[in-house]
Amino acid sequence: MQPNEVKALLESRIDGCDFHIQGEGCNFQVIAVGDAFEGLSPVKRQQLVYAALSDEIASGALHAISIKTFTPTQWSTASENAQ
């Protein structure tokens, strides 16, 4: 899979989030920013993203995924957002 394919899958399955994807093959790093994470524990946030990719993980199309999640407020001060 390509990063743009992973991004398209996530955008179609989780509303109101921006996704930043890096990686190749079946190993990807996902940064997700959105209001959907407001009030959720870190574990629940991870579960939300994993659930959106469960079919691809089960099929082996995606193997290793690193996920970081942020609300828009958190993202505005996150070191990952330093550009």
TrEMBL record:
Entry-linked Gene3D superfamilies: BolA-like
Pfam family, one: BolA
Superkingdom of origin: Bacteria
InterPro entries, per database record: BolA, BolA-like_sf, BolA/IbaG_stress_morph_reg
Protein family membership: Belongs to the BolA/IbaG family.
Protein name: BolA family transcriptional regulator
Lineage of producing organism: Bacteria, Pseudomonadati, Pseudomonadota, Gammaproteobacteria, Oceanospirillales
